[in-house]
Amino acid sequence: MAKGAGKARKKLPKELAVVYADNCTGCEACIEVCPVDCIYKIPGEDLPPLQSFVDIDLERCIGCALCERWCPWDAIEMVPTARVHEAVAIKGGPPSYLEKNHERLVQTARQLAELYSEQQMPKA
C-alpha cells in the first residue's frame, strides 16, 4: 500500500485524479499546482530525464481537480471514486513500472472505492 495506508479518512471526495501515463510528458505542471503534494514523478526507464511521467497517491488526493485543469497534455482525468479502480487498471505506463506496481495501485484504488461506497450508504 502507498504512504499513509491504514489512516482512516473521514470522507473521500466524489472524484479522484488518475494519470494516464502514456499521455504524460513529465512536465510537472500538475505537481506545481497540487495543494496536498500527492503527485510524484517517476523517472523513465532508458532515459530518466526524458521519459519521465507522474503518478498520484490516491490515498492523499482530495479531488480538487487542479491537476486535471493545469495538465497541458490531457493526461489527467477526474474519475468517480466508486470506479477509480477501473481507471487505474488501464492507466498505462512503462512495462517495468506496471510489473512492479500495477497490483498494488489497483488494490489501493479498489479499497478506496469500497470505502467510498460504504460512506455513501445511509446510516440506520
Describe this structure in words.
The protein is an alpha+beta fold and 124 residues long. It has a single domain (15-119), classed as Alpha-Beta Plaits. It is built from four helices and four strands, in the order βαββαβαα. The protein has a two-stranded antiparallel sheet with strand order 1-4. A two-stranded antiparallel sheet has the order 2-3. 30% of the residues are buried. Mean pLDDT is 90; it is low at 1-6.
Number of strands: 4
User: How many helical stretches?
Assistant: 4
CATH class value: Alpha Beta
**pLDDT averaged over residues:** 90
Distance between the termini: 31 Å
Percent of residues in beta strands: 5-15%
Q: Note the overall shape.
A: globular
Task: Give helix and strand order, one letter per element, not per position.
Answer: EHEEHEHH
Helix and strand topology:
Layout: E1 15-19, H1 29-33, E2 39-42, E3 53-56, H2 66-70, E4 76-80, H3 84-89, H4 95-120
Antiparallel strand pairs: 1-4, 2-3
Task: Give me a quick take on this structure.
This protein has a two-stranded antiparallel ribbon with strand order 1-4. The protein has four helices and four strands, in the order βαββαβαα. The protein has 124 residues and is of the alpha+beta class.
